[in-house]
Amino acid sequence: MKRTPLPLLFVLLLVIIVSACSTTRYPGGGYPDDREYPYPRSEEERKQREKDREKRDKDWERGDRDWEERGREGRSYPFSALRIPKGHLPPPGECKVWLPGKPPGHQPPPQSCASAIRSAPLGAWVITHEGSRYRVSIFSRDRRNIIDETRYYLTQ
């Protein structure tokens, strides 16, 4: 009886494993998350993107640029809009991870800013005391270590 060479069996097994893994991970053959798809999938989507671009360009020509009011650093809000008791805010030079929806007594203690940013869970806020204002970095609820928005709350 003739034996099948071992390398041939190994290659065949490897091909089966790779092809099985690729179809289970991305069953549609496309991107795993439709929101991240960079190009329009249909003619209607392409037309909608063109309309959005035209509207943006018209707003630019008209001078209707509300994003310029924010500046490069983000929006500024009055301190009262923060709605966090003053005793639960971090001291100057430190940061605090704030979990929206949890009561103030159940929030983690202040820590160094590097560890607060590194350990922030999805949807958390990292509050930094910067002199006369508090910087609040709002982390994404969907993707880890992505800051969706930065707000500044003035203490005066």
Quick gist of this model?
By secondary structure, this protein is of the alpha+beta class.
Encode the helix/strand succession as letters.
Answer: HHHEEHEEE
The averaged pLDDT comes out at 77
- The secondary-structure class comes to alpha+beta
Query: What number of structural domains do the residues give?
Result: 2
Based on the model shown, name its key terms:
single chain; 156 residues; alpha+beta; five-stranded mixed β-sheet; 4 helices; 33% helix; flat
Summarize the structure in words.
With 156 residues, the chain is of the alpha+beta class. It folds into two domains: 39-70, no CATH class; 74-154, no CATH class. Helix content is 33%, strand content 19%. The chain contains four helices and five strands; from the N terminus they run H-H-H-E-E-H-E-E-E. The protein has helices spanning 6-25, 43-62, 67-70, 113-119, and strands spanning 75-78, 95-98, 125-130, 133-139, 147-154. A five-stranded mixed sheet has the order 1-5-4-3-2. Strand 4 and strand 5 (147-154) form a beta hairpin. The longest helix has 20 residues, at 6-25. The chain is flat. The N and C termini lie far apart (90 Å). Mean pLDDT is 77; it is low at 23-37 and 65-72.
